Each structure stands twice: as structure tokens, then as C-alpha cells.
């Protein structure tokens, strides 16, 4: 008995759906766009994802009712233009590159392109791609350029990249780039972020960067093969918040001009061949992370200017060839949470005041020549657990408190 009713209900529903579809297609007026702009977009994407990608049919209105994942548009004087292109497997439905991914010349015809990024796109080590492209054409518009994790992106950073005078973010991270940093990169005076980490870049850090990039907030050149000394001009990057030059082959003295970086919060120079520290490091009043481990710095901890670094939370001076005593005033930096002084030639006693740092969670003093008695409370050792180390200090000793706790590699004080 209920069957006809159900049939009627289904028919009504189907009719309704058909109407809905007809009206929505009729209402959908394509976003006004120059035909050349739309064609350039299809051909540009095809270059990366392969010629089988049928953008014209799948996405007839790319800035309107058939948006393409990773592509954004904006209106200029009544017409739609492509302003963002992101290629690579970020989301499930992202555009993914083919093994033969390549730049098509049409990419550089997208007149209003502000942001271009590639993630795991040029991955084939057999068919590599370089950055020598027609950047001049995007010089008036491009603000962000990113290439991340593209093993097949090889060759040098071309001088022509420096023509992108509106660039604010240049991120070329974990590719296979080689060669030296062109000094022309100093022309990119609007840059806020330059991150070239994890390539095989070599040569020196050009002085032009420090002389011109006064708006730079982040400079990350870690994990390359840069050599030579740090230019004094580095003090000119007065806005800098983060400076990461770790894991390179930099040598020479740390220039006193670094002290001019008053807003710097992170200084990471780990694993280089730098020597010689300067008390002016103490002028970096905002510094929270001072990471200098694995460098033959030498000298005395007193020469580090630590007395003034009251915002410091992390101090890594492991394996830096420091000699002399541990100044008690280190503990005046009340926010310290991590202190590594291990693998040096430090002498003298261990300041008891370390235990007054309420946030301290790691203290490494092992492999030095510290002497005398460790005077920390049992509670302190309990709090630190295995993140306290003092072994390989032949003349250091401790007393065992009620718990009978044993500190690995530290002998018991006699009497
Ligand atoms: C590169 O080429 C070699 C020889 O032609 C081939 O065996 C290999 O599978 C290729 N590798 C990739 C990642 O395409
Ligand atoms: C440093 O930071 C302060 C506070 O955020 C800011 O007012 C100042 O302009 C910055 N200095 C430079 C040189 O960027
Ligand atoms: C130190 O840097 C070099 C590159 O200069 C790298 O090969 C090495 O793995 C780094 N060592 C550590 C401990 O990170
Ligand atoms: C400590 O000094 C001794 C003697 O001067 C030297 O042989 C040793 O290499 C130094 N150790 C470290 C870690 O610098
Ligand atoms: C440790 O210091 C003592 C003197 O306090 C000195 O005799 C000894 O050579 C030093 N050891 C090392 C490895 O520097």
C-alpha cells in the first residue's frame, strides 16, 4: 500500500534535484577572466602535473565555481587573475607533479602572481630542473617563492632571482642547489624571510646581505657547505629575530657586530669551525637561544657577555673548547631551562645556585675538569633525572643523601 506513496516521493525528489542542478548551472556565470590568463594557467599546471591533466574540462571556471586546489585568484579592475599557485602533495586533492615536471613558459605570463610554491615536485634525480627561469617577468608581482623538498632541483641560485624586487619570502629548503650565494640577493631589500637550509651551497656569505636586508626577520642558511668568515655587515640586519647558520664550515672569529642585533631571539651557529667569542654577544638583549656547540671557540666563559642575557632559556656551549671557571652570574638569567657546558676544559667548582633556577630541566657538565663537591639537593637530582650529567670530571665528587642516589660517573666525596 505504501509503494505508490514512496514512488511519488522519489519522483518529487528527482524532479527537485534536476531543477536545482539546472538553475545552479544557469546562475553560474563564469568569473570574468582574460582568455590568455586562463590558458596560461592550464598550460602552466600541465607542465608540472603532465599533459593528461585536462584542466579546460575539469575546471572551466578556475577563478569561479570550479576552483583548483592550490590556486587562488583575485580581482583587478573587474577581471580575475591568478595570484597564488601551490604545487605538491600538501592536501589529499592537491596538484601532484609527474616525473617529467617542468616549467612551462606560460607560468611566467601570469601577470599578477604573488605567491608560487612547490613541495616535492621536482623529485626525479634523472631528470633534474634548475632555477634558471624567466623570473624577470614576475618581477613586479611575486612576493613569495618557495621550493621545499625537491631533490631534483639542482644547479645554482641564478642572479636573475634578485630581479624579484617585491619578494618578501624566499624559501629554498631541502633541495639539491649548489654553487655560491649571488651577492645580488642583497638587492631583495623587502625580504623578511630568507631560508636556504639543507642544500649544498658553498662559498662565503656575501657582505651585501647584511648591508641591505634591514627588514629581514629570519635568515636560515643551515645545513649547507658555506665557508669563510661571518661578514661584519651582519650587524646591519637590525630587524633580525632568527639567525641560523648551523651545520656549515664557517670559520674565523665571531664578529662583535653581531651584538647590534638587539631583537635577535635565536642565534644558532652550531657545528662550524668558528673561533673566538666577543663580549658584545651580551648586547643581544632579546636572545633566548644561544646555540654555539661544536665550534673551536676557545677562551673563557667570562668573555661571552652572558651577564646581560636575561631572556636566555637555552644555552648550548657543548664542545666549544672553553677553559676556566663557570661564572655564578649565569644563574642570574632566571629563565634558563637548558644548559649544556659539557666536553670543554672547565675548571673550578660547580655553582650551587643552579638549583635556584626553577625552570631548569637539563644541566650537562660532563667531560670537563671541574673540581670539588656537588652541593645540590636530592630534590634537584630527582627533578633533573637523566638530564643531569657530570661524569668524566676526575676531581669532582658528590655526597649521597637519604635516597642513596648514585650519580653516574661521579665518585663519592671522602669523609
Ligand atoms: C633513473 O634512471 C635509471 C637508468 O636509466 C633507472 O634505472 C632508474 O630507475 C631511474 N630512477 C628514477 C628515480 O627515475
Ligand atoms: C625591535 O623590536 C621592537 C619591539 O618589537 C620594535 O619596536 C623595533 O622596531 C624592533 N627593532 C628593529 C630594528 O626592527
Ligand atoms: C655538522 O655539519 C656537517 C656539514 O657541515 C654535517 O655533515 C654533519 O652531519 C654535522 N654534524 C652534526 C653532529 O650535526
Ligand atoms: C683540555 O685540555 C687538555 C690539555 O690542555 C687537552 O689535551 C684537551 O684536548 C682539552 N680537551 C678539550 C675537550 O678541549
Ligand atoms: C685538570 O686539572 C688539573 C689541575 O686542577 C690538572 O693537573 C690536569 O692536567 C687537568 N686535566 C686536564 C685533562 O686538563
Please give a structural write-up.
- It contains five helices and 25 strands.
- With 415 residues, it is of the alpha/beta class.
- Strands 1-2-3-5-7-8-10-12-14-16-17-19-21-23 form a 14-stranded mixed sheet, with helices on one face.
- A hairpin with a 2-residue loop joins strand 1 (71-76) and strand 2 (79-87).
- The protein is elongated.
- It starts with a helix and ends with a strand.
- 34% of the residues are buried.
- Bound molecules: 2-acetamido-2-deoxy-beta-D-glucopyranose (5 copies).
CATH topology annotation of the domain at 298-415: Leucine-rich repeat, LRR (right-handed beta-alpha superhelix)
Question: Helix amount, in percent?
Answer: 10-25%
Detail the poorly predicted runs: 12-27
Superfamily at the CATH H level of the domain at 298-415?
A: Ribonuclease Inhibitor
Could you report the average pLDDT, rounded to the nearest whole number? Answer: 92
Succession of helices and strands: HHHEEEEEEEEEHEEEEEEEEEEEEEHEEE
- Which ligands appear in the coordinates? 2-acetamido-2-deoxy-beta-D-glucopyranose
Strand order in the sheet with the most strands: 1-2-3-5-7-8-10-12-14-16-17-19-21-23
Amino acid at each position: 500500500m505504501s509503494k505508490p506513496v514512496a514512488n511519488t516521493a522519489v519522483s518529487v525528489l528527482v524532479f527537485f534535484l534536476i531543477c536545482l542542478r539546472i538553475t545552479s548551472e544557469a546562475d553560474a556565470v563564469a568569473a570574468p577572466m582574460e582568455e590568455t590568463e586562463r590558458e596560461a594557467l592550464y598550460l602552466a599546471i600541465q607542465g608540472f602535473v603532465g599533459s593528461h591533466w585536462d584542466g579546460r574540462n575539469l575546471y572551466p571556471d578556475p577563478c569561479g565555481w570550479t576552483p583548483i586546489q592550490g590556486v587562488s585568484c583575485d580581482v583587478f579592475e573587474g577581471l580575475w587573475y591568478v595570484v597564488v599557485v601551490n604545487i605538491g602533495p600538501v592536501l589529499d586533492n592537491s596538484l601532484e607533479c609527474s616525473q617529467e615536471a617542468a616549467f612551462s613558459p606560460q607560468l611566467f605570463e601570469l601577470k599578477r602572481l604573488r605567491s608560487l610554491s612547490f613541495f616535492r615536485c621536482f623529485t626525479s634525480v634523472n631528470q633534474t630542473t634548475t632555477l634558471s627561469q624567466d623570473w624577470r617577468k614576475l618581477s613586479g608581482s611575486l612576493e613569495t617563492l618557495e621550493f621545499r623538498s625537491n631533490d631534483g632541483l639542482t644547479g645554482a641560485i641564478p642572479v636573475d632571482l634578485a630581479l624579484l624586487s617585491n619578494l618578501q619570502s624566499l624559501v629554498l629548503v631541502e633541495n639539491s642547489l649548489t654553487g655560491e650565494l649571488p651577492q645580488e640577493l642583497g638587492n631583495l631589500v623587502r625580504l623578511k624571510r630568507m631560508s636556504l637550509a639543507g642544500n649544498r651551497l658553498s662559498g662565503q656569505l656575501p657582505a651585501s646581505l647584511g648591508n641591505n636586508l634591514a627588514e629581514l626577520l629570519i635568515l636560515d642558511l643551515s645545513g649547507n657547505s658555506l665557508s669563510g668568515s661571518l661578514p661584519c655587515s651582519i650587524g646591519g640586519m637590525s630587524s633580525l629575530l632568527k639567525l641560523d647558520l648551523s651545520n656549515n664550515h664557517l670559520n674565523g672569529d665571531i664578529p662583535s657586530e653581531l651584538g647590534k642585533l638587539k631583537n635577535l631571539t635565536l642565534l644558532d651557529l652550531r657545528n662550524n669551525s668558528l673561533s673566538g667569542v666577543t663580549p658584545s654577544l651580551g648586547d643581544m638583549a632579546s636572545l633566548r637561544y644561544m646555540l654555539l656547540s661544536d665550534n673551536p671557540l676557545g677562551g673563557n666563559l667570562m668573555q661571552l657577555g652572558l651577564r646581560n642575557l636575561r631572556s636566555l632559556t637555552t644555552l648550548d656551549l657543548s664542545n666549544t673548547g672553553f677553559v676556566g671557571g663557570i661564572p655564578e652570574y649565569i644563574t642570574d638569567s632566571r629563565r634558563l631551562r637548558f644548559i649544556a657546558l659539557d666536553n670543554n676544559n672547565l675548571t673550578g667548582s660547580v655553582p650551587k645556585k643552579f638549583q635556584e633556577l626553577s625552570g631548569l630541566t637539563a644541566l650537562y657538565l660532563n667531560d670537563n675538569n671541574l673540581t670539588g663537591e656537588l652541593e645540590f639537593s636530592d630534590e634537584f637530582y630527582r627533578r633533573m633525572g637523566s638530564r643531569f650529567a657530570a661524569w668524566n670530571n676526575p676531581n669532582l665528587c658528590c655526597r649521597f643523601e637519604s635516597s642513596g642516589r648514585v650519580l653516574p660517573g661521579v665518585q663519592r666525596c671522602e669523609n
